[in-house]
Every structure is written in C-alpha cells, then in structure tokens.
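anyone seen this seq b4? input:
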Amino acid sequence: MGRLLQKDETRTLLRTAVVKQVTGNSYFVADGASLSYTVRAAGCLLEPQLDDLVLLSTNSMGTSYILTVLERQGNDPAMVSVEGDLVIHSERGNLSLQGSQSLNLVSAEIRLNAASARMQFADFAFAGTLVTSCARHLRMVCETVESKATRVVERVNRLYRRVGDEDSRLGRFRCRVRGRFAVRAEDASIDAEKRMRLNGDKIELG
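predicted toks r here
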C-alpha cells in the first residue's frame, strides 16, 4: 500500500487550457468551463500571453505548471523571458542570432569580450554623447574621410605625416614652437595682401 500511495502522489496529468489572465508569473487558465490558477514552469521560456493555448502539468497535490505554449493567438511579439540571470552557451559549436528584418539589443550596459572581432556593414551610423577608445595600435584605411567639429584638441608626442597635396583655408593661423622651427622646400613663396612682418633678435637672409 505504501508503494501504491507513493506512486499515486507522483502521478501527473497533462491537459490543455487557454490563458485568460496574466499577473506577473501567475496565470489564470480556462479548461472548459472551469478557471484555475497556475504558474509558468522554469523550462517554459516562451512567455504565455492572453488567449494562448498552453500545455498544463498538474500533479495529484493540485499543483499546476505551464509547460509550453502550443498556439499563440495575439499579434504581440513572442517574448522569451526568465527570472534571474540567463546564459546561452554553445559547448562545441557556433551561436548565431538572425533577424530577417532587424536585430535590436537594448540594455542599461552592453559588454562584448572576444579575442578577435569582425564587423561588416554596408551603412553604419552611430549617435552618442561620449566615445572613449584605448588601443595599443590603431590602423585606419579609407578612400575619403570627412570630419566636422566645433573644436578639436590633440596632444601628440611625435607626429609624422606624408601628404601628396594639401590645400588649407583658414580664418586665422597661429603656430608656437618652443625650439627650432625650420621649413625646407624646393620653391617657397609668401604672399601677404596687406602686411608682412619679420621680428627677431637676429634675422639672416641668404
């Protein structure tokens, strides 16, 4: 009798029902004319919505769980949700997230850690308040670079540039050099429309 009683206590009944009310992780489902209270099982990742057809598991003690969603009736996006942290891990293969139209990532903080990263976009747009980058080496190859800023501040210990042709149009240009200032050119010309001034303790020409 003891074994029969233990077996009867662990008996589970499976049935289908329709979700009629959603309150957090608690649900009221209708099975025919009766309305019963149930909760979502930990393994049911798809969050049930109103009027969804779900599969219930009820033990002999009357405890009921929603095991899975069989049919969805609403037009709201399907939501996979869990309580607490969630880790999706691929032991020996790749992990892919694909959206036929778009892929949205929304969080208070996003961290990406990888030994190597590759990104390829046909069109890339970024908007933000502050961008901070730190790298040992930075390499950038572009056909055309266009930049517009109200103010640019640069601090460089050593700067080496090789320019084939440069055309600068400035409203005002001021250059301050602590040590020696030297300009070497095959041909050089300085043209001032109004005034040109040379000032120094010693000026050598030729």
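Residues 2-71 form a domain with the OB fold (Dihydrolipoamide Acetyltransferase, E2P) fold (CATH 2.40.50.140). The CA atoms of residues 159 and 190 lie 25 Å apart. kinda curious what u guys think
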